[in-house]
Amino acid sequence: MNGDKKVTLSMGELFDPSDLDDLYNYSYNYNYIPNGEGTVCGQESSMHFDSIFIPVLYSLALVVGLVGNGLVLVVLWKKRTSLNVTDTFILHLSLADILLLLTLPFWAVETVKGWIFGTALCKLTGALFKINFYCGIFMLSCISLDRYLSIVHAVQMYSRKKPMVTHCCCLMVWLFCLLLTIPDWIFLVATEDNRRQDKTECVLFYPSDSWHLPTRLLYHILGFILPALIMLFCYYHILKRLQHGSQCMQKKRAIRVIVTLVLAFFISWTPYNITLIVDTIQSNKTINLSNQTSCESATALDVALTATSTLGYLHCCVNPVLYAFVGVKFRQHLLDMLKPLGFTLMGPAVLSRRSSLWSESVDTSHTSAF
């Protein structure tokens, strides 16, 4: 008919990728949860909380973490000719923490202004974050295994005469962590989210919902459950072994720092992983049979994920503080390094070799810098 008008619709009008953004970002939770009537929950409350809470704490973590881990690297560099196995793992652990900390400013800016850095930097920053997240946890697991073999079975996993073997092991850990981030390199995109006032967000955008549960399970198992089981197994047998033997007290001193690091790991990451498991159950239709989640509970869960994930990220700046308070030799090395600036040690100024809190009881000829 001559009076008919031709209507042209673009694909952008028919299909908006932001409508399918689900809970795929592990760093931040973007709820897309239907209530009983099938409407979409807004996120204004959680956005306001994020925009205040995250920038402040991430800025604090960045400053404290860079200074603390930087000092750890300086101490290890000065003692580089006498580093043992544990020191080498601590070196790589500090590097992983620093690289993870360097991604925090990007996420802080995102909570205030949205993701303004483009898709390429979204992929790079997101993958870098995940690499160093996994690497930090795996390095703690490697330290635990090394201490377990040394103390329980009197087996030196790595020869102190061949330090490159330890570095090669660390390199394998880094490469494995890189492989785990392949989904991030492929699926991370910068896209507008109409649930967050059309702000551009850096999120994982999978081609179908079937990707969600497997990737979450991968995170739960490799990012927390498996390392936790390894460390619990190792330190259960280590502490059991320390109850016997003529060098019991010396070995207890030697393991104190590492046990403190592991406790810090559990305190930092357990709340987040429990909250994330709850989120996985609620967001997956095959698990959450009722599929009924109110907007109020969705917002509360989003705030809980933000708070607990931030606690986990603060773990990056906790380790150097623990070294300073628990590691006698590290504290002595640090104070010796700061003496030219006027810092002095109050109390006993001389620490004997028996003051080591780390690996002296296992390898007295090659003591740790901590």
UniProtKB/TrEMBL annotation:
<keyword id="KW-0145">Chemotaxis</keyword>
<keyword id="KW-0325">Glycoprotein</keyword>
<feature type="domain" description="G-protein coupled receptors family 1 profile">
    <location>
        <begin position="68"/>
        <end position="323"/>
    </location>
</feature>
<dbReference type="GO" id="GO:0006955">
    <property type="term" value="P:immune response"/>
</dbReference>
<dbReference type="GO" id="GO:0006954">
    <property type="term" value="P:inflammatory response"/>
</dbReference>
<keyword id="KW-0812">Transmembrane</keyword>
<keyword id="KW-1015">Disulfide bond</keyword>
<dbReference type="GO" id="GO:0019722">
    <property type="term" value="P:calcium-mediated signaling"/>
</dbReference>
<keyword id="KW-0807">Transducer</keyword>
<feature type="transmembrane region" description="Helical">
    <location>
        <begin position="89"/>
        <end position="109"/>
    </location>
</feature>
<keyword id="KW-0675">Receptor</keyword>
<dbReference type="InterPro" id="IPR000355">
    <property type="entry name" value="Chemokine_rcpt"/>
</dbReference>
<dbReference type="GO" id="GO:0009897">
    <property type="term" value="C:external side of plasma membrane"/>
</dbReference>
<dbReference type="InterPro" id="IPR050119">
    <property type="entry name" value="CCR1-9-like"/>
</dbReference>
<keyword id="KW-1003">Cell membrane</keyword>
<dbReference type="GO" id="GO:0002685">
    <property type="term" value="P:regulation of leukocyte migration"/>
</dbReference>
<keyword id="KW-0037">Angiogenesis</keyword>
<dbReference type="GO" id="GO:0007204">
    <property type="term" value="P:positive regulation of cytosolic calcium ion concentration"/>
</dbReference>
<keyword id="KW-1133">Transmembrane helix</keyword>
<comment type="similarity">
    <text>Belongs to the G-protein coupled receptor 1 family.</text>
</comment>
<dbReference type="InterPro" id="IPR000276">
    <property type="entry name" value="GPCR_Rhodpsn"/>
</dbReference>
<keyword id="KW-0765">Sulfation</keyword>
<dbReference type="GO" id="GO:0019957">
    <property type="term" value="F:C-C chemokine binding"/>
</dbReference>
<keyword id="KW-0472">Membrane</keyword>
<feature type="transmembrane region" description="Helical">
    <location>
        <begin position="52"/>
        <end position="77"/>
    </location>
</feature>
<dbReference type="InterPro" id="IPR017452">
    <property type="entry name" value="GPCR_Rhodpsn_7TM"/>
</dbReference>
<dbReference type="GO" id="GO:0016493">
    <property type="term" value="F:C-C chemokine receptor activity"/>
</dbReference>
<dbReference type="GO" id="GO:0016494">
    <property type="term" value="F:C-X-C chemokine receptor activity"/>
</dbReference>
<feature type="transmembrane region" description="Helical">
    <location>
        <begin position="217"/>
        <end position="236"/>
    </location>
</feature>
<dbReference type="InterPro" id="IPR004070">
    <property type="entry name" value="Chemokine_CXCR3"/>
</dbReference>
<feature type="transmembrane region" description="Helical">
    <location>
        <begin position="257"/>
        <end position="278"/>
    </location>
</feature>
<keyword id="KW-0297">G-protein coupled receptor</keyword>
<dbReference type="GO" id="GO:0001525">
    <property type="term" value="P:angiogenesis"/>
</dbReference>
<feature type="transmembrane region" description="Helical">
    <location>
        <begin position="164"/>
        <end position="188"/>
    </location>
</feature>
<dbReference type="GO" id="GO:0060326">
    <property type="term" value="P:cell chemotaxis"/>
</dbReference>
<dbReference type="Pfam" id="PF00001">
    <property type="entry name" value="7tm_1"/>
</dbReference>
<feature type="transmembrane region" description="Helical">
    <location>
        <begin position="115"/>
        <end position="143"/>
    </location>
</feature>
<protein>
    <recommendedName>
        <fullName>C-X-C chemokine receptor type 3</fullName>
    </recommendedName>
</protein>
